Amino acid sequence: MAKSGEPAAPPASTAEPAAWLGNYVTQVVAVASAEVQKLRHDPWELMTRAIQPVLWLMLFGEVMARVRGVSPGGLPYLDFLAAGILAQSVLFVAIFYGISAIWERDLGVLQRYLVSPAPRSALVLGKALSAGVRGLSQAFVVYILAALLGVGISLSLLHILGVVLIIIMGSALFSTLSLIIACLVKTRERFMGIGQVLTMPIFFASNAIYPLSLMPGWLRAISRVNPLTYEVDALRALMLAHGVSEYGLSLDFPVLASAMAVLTAIGARMYRRMGF
Amino acid sequence: MAGSASDTETSELAVQTLELTRRFDGLTAVDAVSLTVKRGEIFGLIGPNGAGKSTLIKMLTTLLPPSAGSARVAGYDIVRQPAEVRRHIGYVPQLLSADGSLTGYENMLLSARLYGVPRHERAGRIERALARMGLSEAAGHLVGHYSGGMIRRLEIAQSLLHRPLVLFLDEPTVGLDPSARDTVWERVLDLRNRFNRTMIVTSHHMDEINAFCDRIALIHRGRIAAVGTPAELKARIGPDATLDDVFIQLVGDKSETETGGSYGEVRRARRAAREHG
Fold first, then answer.
1. Contacts of B24 in chain A (CB under 8 A)
2. Which of helix, strand or coil describes residue B71?
3. ipTM tops the 0.85 cut
4. Domain B7-276, what fold?
5. For residue B227, what are the β-bridge partners?
6. Interface of B with A in 159-178 (CB under 8 A)
7. pLDDT tens across B149-186, in order?
8. Domain ranges, ordered by start, for chain A
9. Which among B106, B109, B195 has the least Cβ separation from residue A4?
10. A156 to chain B nearest CA, in Å?
11. Is B91 left (phi over 0), alpha (psi -120 to 50) or beta?
12. Which of A114, A152, A230, B21 is deepest in the core (most CB within 10 A)?
């Protein structure tokens, strides 16, 4: 068909599982690395987002640490809080991620993604992975600050790798939830309202800033089905030198992975409809 | 040319639709459209705002599922083989699709990866495509700093990286000045002449449609009002008729064309014009 030496046909579809998987990973990484490149061109977003955990740890944490009797699980309150604030920072970055999808839809950039042969789940996972990169930048800030405030941080390489994995999973989970909400509400104004309404219940109905034992029964029941509780639980065990997991990492990881898989499947189906 | 084709003809067809229909909450945006586009053709879709052109293109590019009817693009069914259709088409939407927060090269790289261009071919293909569109020097700059014409050329380069058989261009020159419009059409013609790509173009510029399209379909209220070469359509009206005359004659009351289009479509068109201008 081509009149010059340039072949006309695009690459053949990859029917073999290994080739399909390779292509799938490339597409996920393509979307994620594009987001990372944007951050590299304009790192201001990361810098401004770093302010919130600083305020929580230095103001709220320092004051609450002086309240007598607040020593959850035998840990100094600031140690207890550090893991919770890390999870909170990741949540706050991820939960507003859907607004960028609405922005991309309004601009037209979304159509570039949707008209490509990349599976929708690869596009959603790529976006989720890039939220993880933003979450990791928050972790860097919280680690430095926690160390300066005298929090006993675990420097075990295995524990640090565990924290990285949990942050990526937590970011992916909540950013995908955010994407699903964006697909439903479709406008930035509605999304901002719902985002605000969602963030606080997820945060306060978790073990991020106080232990579950202080909660009334009904709130404790809600917190047990809140993925943030398991994220905080795992972070507390891995980030702190004397941290202990209440539920066990063998439960925390599967809960986060399952929630992420379910949300990715739902997100992939709904993301397609963003282009309508 | 409307209607289905025989098996022999089918192999020469880039696009074939049969009674293709799309309804939105009681409104029929595209109403039983049957048409064929031959390989290597530049096929124009014209019509007033809200006539159904963009909806038709969204269905053919698999962005929107049809309510009824069927269509094959590059030989693949748009409903049963959407991934294969997407692999074989390029699409330049009316809205801005290049990401202003990335450089031209990064936008190209993103497209190359999404379309599965082999790793060892990526750099070469990107460099050649950028050179062909006259964007080599600007490749490292953020697209947010490009002019409207440069963005359109980049979007065309992006849509061609995987060497699609059919290229859809939805209002490719909206918001561009005459010089930038000429450059875009120059590149489009070059692609057709050198690589025999099939192009499906929508435009409100009748002079462009007249000059560059091999055949055109006029869509009105979701239906095909006329199909033919520009000369054939003009001849139906009179010896000195222009495409504008054809448009007004077949669409009817001129005031309808002036007020047509939904609020959303007008808003999107104006935004696209602003962003490219």
1. none
2. strand
3. no
4. Rossmann fold (3.40.50)
5. B217
6. 162-165
7. 899 899 989 998 998 999 999 888 887 778 878 888 88
8. 27-275
9. B195
10. 36
11. beta
12. A230
